[in-house]
UniProtKB/TrEMBL annotation:
This is DUF6879 domain-containing protein. Residues 8-173 form the DUF6879 domain. InterPro entries: DUF6879 (IPR049244). Pfam families: DUF6879 (PF21806). It comes from Streptomyces telluris. It comes from the Bacteria.
Amino acid sequence: MRPNSVPAFSDLVKECHRSAVHLELRDAYSVASEADDFAEWQACGRITPESVKRRRSWLDLVRSTVARGVEVRRARVVSLPASEYIRYEHAGTYLNVEAGEKVRWLPRRHAATLALPGADFWLLDDRLIRFGHFSGEGASAGHELCDDPAVVKLCAEAFDAVWQRATPHEEFAV
């Protein structure tokens, strides 16, 4: 594991040739980059044009990555009834899907028999993992890179197991 000097995610994904898959395991995040969007959603109950503008760099990155032939998939393991944060994520996920990302949701009770890593991660081209660490309150606590073949295999199998059981975004209600 390499916790120091982790390159920006955009730099890592630009090096992808086949796949970038993301497993999210938390019911709430409190990352600074989403604070305005989340507060706005809480106030008005919808994703606003301003929120779409703030997400533009991510959506453009997904579009350009998918246009290069890289499959981008995200699987979210969530508790139900859903937390307020998960309802917010669900409300904005249509933007990810429109940009070319494939997103699925798995109720946590359906993940009970799966062996899952203890942290969220991105697995890039089945060769490099970028773990995301968070505080108990959901603030970012940094990232680590790992290319250990055994850990890569564990994460690939965990993602695939969640993906198989999960429901596509378009069919999932919170």
